[in-house]
Predict the 3D structure of the following.
Amino acid sequence: MGELGARGRYTPPMATLHSPVPPAAVCAPTPQPGLDDLLRWDREHVWHAFTQMQEYEPLLIERGAGAWLFDSAGRRYVDGSASMWCNVHGHRHPRLDAALAEQAGKVAHTTNLGLSNPTTVEFARRLVEVAPPGLDRVFFSGDGSSAIEAALKMAFQYWRQVAPPQPARTRFVAIAEAYHGDTLGAIGVGGVDRFTAMFAPLTFAALRVPSPGCPCPATGRPAPTLPEALETLDRILTAHAGEVAAVIMEPLVQMAAGIHVHPPGFLRGVRDLATRHGVLLVLDEVATGFGRTGTLFACTQEGVSPDFLCLAKGLTAGYLPMAATLTTTTVWNAFLGTHAQRRTFFHGHTFGGNPLAAAVGLASLDIFRDEGVLAALPPRIERLREHVARLARLDHVGAVRQCGLVAGLDLVADKATGMPYPWQEQRGTRASLAARPHGALVRQLGDTVVLMPPLCITLDELDHLAAAVEAGIRAATA
C-alpha cells in the first residue's frame, strides 16, 4: 500500500515505481531479423489495406530517395503512385527531414484538445493564407476520411445551431461513383460499390448526381453532358428543398472512381447551384490538393471557394499522417456559446494537430514557395500527356484520362467496342505487378492503371515510368 506524506501527497509503493524484475522475454537480447524472417512475419502478422491476404506476395521497401524507392533486396523502383498519392517533393527531401528532426528536438506531441503548440498554430495560419478566400478556420485530424467526417458532422450540426435553426437539413448530395474515404460517414457519401456496398446497412444514403466524367457502370449509359448533370443537381436540390445540408465533391477529377475528369465548368456550376439553393459545399481535395492538378488547390482553377475544404495526403508531403478541414467564420460562429449551451463541436482525435506533422507541413509549403514547384509542373504534365497518348494506342488500352500530373489507363478486352475484361481476371493488378521487374511501382483501380508520381519527378524518370507501365500492360494483356 502507498502512504500519505506530511503534506497529504500520495507516495506509491516503491515496487511500482521501477519494477526491477521484468519478464525474461523482455530482457533477452533480440536477434536482428533476417530478410526471410521479415517476409514471413509480413505474411503472418500484417493485415494490409485493400489486399487479399491469401494472394499477397510481400515486397518490403527499405528506403527512398527523390522519386525512387528501394526494396530489401536492393532493387529500385520509380514511385509511380507517389506512395499512395501523398508524396509531393520526393523521398528524403533535406528540408523536410530537417524540419522533422528540429521539431522532434522540441516536443513530438501535445494534445490539441484545449491547448496548442507554436508549430501547429503557425501551420494553421499558413494554410489560411494559401487556401481559397474565406476559409479562415482550421480543424486538424489524422487522415482524409477523418477530414471528411469532420466536415459532414460540422455541416449537420451547423444547421441545428444557425439562427434560425433548420434541423430538417440532414441529407447530403454526392456525385455518382464518388469516393471520400472508408469511415462510415465517408461511406455514406461514397458511391464506389466495391468499397461501400458491404457496409451500406451501417450508414446513410446520399442523394446522387451522375458524374459528367463517368459512364454509368450499372447501365452502361455514357456519361451525362455538363448541362444534364447540372440540371439533375438543380432538380434534386429543388425536390429536397430545406432537407439538404451540403453537397460534397472532388473538384475537377474523381480520383478513386477511376481518374474520371469533369468537363470545365462543372465545379463552378455546382458552386453556383449550392449558393442559389442555400446549401453548403464541401470540397474533398484530399487527393487533388497540393499541386496534383497543376495548381496548389484544384478548386482555384474555376475560382471556387467552398464552405469546407478537406485536405490530407500531400498536406505533409507524404511524411506523416495529418488532415485538415478548413471552413468559414460563418460556420465557426454557429458553434460559439457558453458551455451550458452545448454548441461545442464534440469531435476530435488524439493526434489531431500533431506538431511533428505540422512541422513538415510548414516546410512543404516553404518548398512550394521557394523552389518553384508549381512553375516546374507544365513540362512534366506535357511529357506525361505524350506518354498517355502513346500508351492509348496499345491494343488493350481503351479510354485514357489525365488531369495535371495524374492519369488513368483503362484496360479492355476489345478496343473497338470498349468491352471490359471480366473483373475476376484482375488485369489491372496483373499489369501493375508486371511493371515491377521493369523498375516501377504503380497502383490500379480495378482495371484502370493509374500513373501518379511525385511532383518532383524528372522528365527522364517519367520516361522510365511510362516504359515500365507499357511493359506491364503488354505482359498482362498478351
